[in-house]
Amino acid sequence: MPELPEVEALAAYLRDRAVGRRVQRLEVAAISVLKTYDPPPSAVAGKEIVDAGRHGKFLDVVFEGDLHLVVHLSRAGWLHYRDAFPNSTPLKPAGKGPIAVRVRLDDGSGFDLTEAGTQKRLAAYLVTDPALVPGVAKLGPDALAADEETFAARIRGRRGQLKGVLTDQEVLAGIGNAYSDEILHAAHLSPFAITNRLSDAQMATLHEAVRTVLTDAVRRSVGQKAAELKGEKRSGMKVHARTGLPCPVCGDTVREVSFADSSLQYCPTCQTGGKPLADRRLSRLVR
Ligand SMILES: [Zn+2]
What we know:
This protein has 9 helices and 10 strands. The protein is an alpha+beta fold. The radius of gyration is 20 Å and the shape is elongated.
């Protein structure tokens, strides 16, 4: 799932390639992906792309006349930039393929929003103001923009396990499953630490870890082509998706805790005083 650094890189790529170009046509193949009907997709035809940015993990493509195509890529969604399309035939609505939305530009290039797999969670909104998108309106401050005081207040304000609170987009925008594992590893904190019991020193370390991990990831990602971003994301990881491999910091074995539809990874020596966390799925089986 793309998080703040990957969405920032996609926006940077669009600023480089698409800004200044005019839209020839916005085609919608998967009706369920486009969550809005007014303005209609035809409203962007002939309009120039004037900017691209993000709100947390939402990508925002801005057209002249205050029109925004806001996209949440969710788990399996992605943006593919095409230098050219194989033909000019519009996408068929209710097409079976992975392409959900296609934006054709006046130089023959453009981009597709795609979603792999059967879980259809990719969401696109064509709106006159990004705040009209419910998920955007509820976002907390951007994870990279929050100063230490704001950060501490947001985290302490939501009592719970640190992993869950860090990835709650209403607390802070932009951090998901992968970078929260990396941030907690960098901060030497357990994913199950309780937010309002963190000391001031731990909170300062956590804030610094958020900035360092995300800034490094943005630096590695921006300038990469969309197609190369996923590999780039994985290559920078120290614990996320590295179960059973040695921690690059201390050499201990990276461990995992599994949940119904996700998992987290951590290093016991770096994060939990050497003590493995209970894997609830496993302990239920043993009992
Ligand atoms: Zn370690």
